[in-house]
Amino acid sequence: MTPKAPLLIVEHPVVARDLTILRNKETPSAVFRPVLNRLATILAYHALDKLPLREVTVQTPIQATKGFEIDTQVIVVPILRAGLGLVHAITQFIPEAKIGHLGIYRDETTHKPVEYYVNLPKTGLSDGTVLLVDPMLATGGSACDAIGYLKTKGVQKIRFMCLIAAPEGVEAVQQQHPDVPIITASVDEKLNENAYIVPGLGDAGDRIFGTD
Q1: How many CB atoms sit inside 10 A of residue 184's CB?
Q2: How far apart are CA 88 and CA 78, in angstroms?
Q3: 171: domain CATH number?
Q4: pLDDT at 2
């Protein structure tokens, strides 16, 4: 039996408070965006854990000492459009990160993912670490499709980061891609008949960009 990849649910008082603000339907986009960025920053800290390091020597004002640099190319790939709201949180930690774009939308009738835009870095995919990001992991269709596409491009190391997940989405990713860790702030109750996360926070893209 193939072991499932780790599922990390980040628990913290600030996370609990910020999730509450994001869930509140009365929260306007002007408040939603900075709160989302703060929560994403906390998740990004954990999503970047255990990256490989290389030893270097630096000169302090006192003497030479041992230090470390991150020894992998980090590539952030947001699933458009809502995933764009999570990119800045990661680049705060890794300013040199490359950023790809993967456009996938969910067909409202079939609930299946449809690719419409792809633009990935030309180098670094095969030996780098890709952080695939999307605020919501609902059915898992878009995430699994995106992960599968990245693997066809030679990506070996993928981590998936989201704000909120449904149990169905977690199960889909763990079954289809057991090598991909999931980092999230919450695994909610279920999906409803329209494949929205319950209780969730609504359409994250609409709330980020004020198009609801």
Answers
A1: 24
A2: 11
A3: 3.40.50.2020
A4: 64
Active site includes 110? yes
Give CA–CA dist 150/163, Å, rounded.
Answer: 21
56-72 pLDDT tens trace: 999 999 999 999 999 99
Tell me whether residue 2 is in a domain. no
CA dist., res. 130 & res. 98, Å (int): 9
Q: Is 91 among the catalytic positions?
A: no
Name the amino acid, one letter, at 56.
Answer: V
Known catalytic membership, residue 109: no
Q: Which domain holds residue 193?
A: 7-48+74-209
17 is catalytic: no
Does a structural domain hold residue 152?
A: yes
What pLDDT sits at residue 1?
Answer: 58
**Reported pTM:** 0.91
Q: Which of 23, 33, 38, 106 is catalytic?
A: 106
What's the structural domain count of the chain?
1
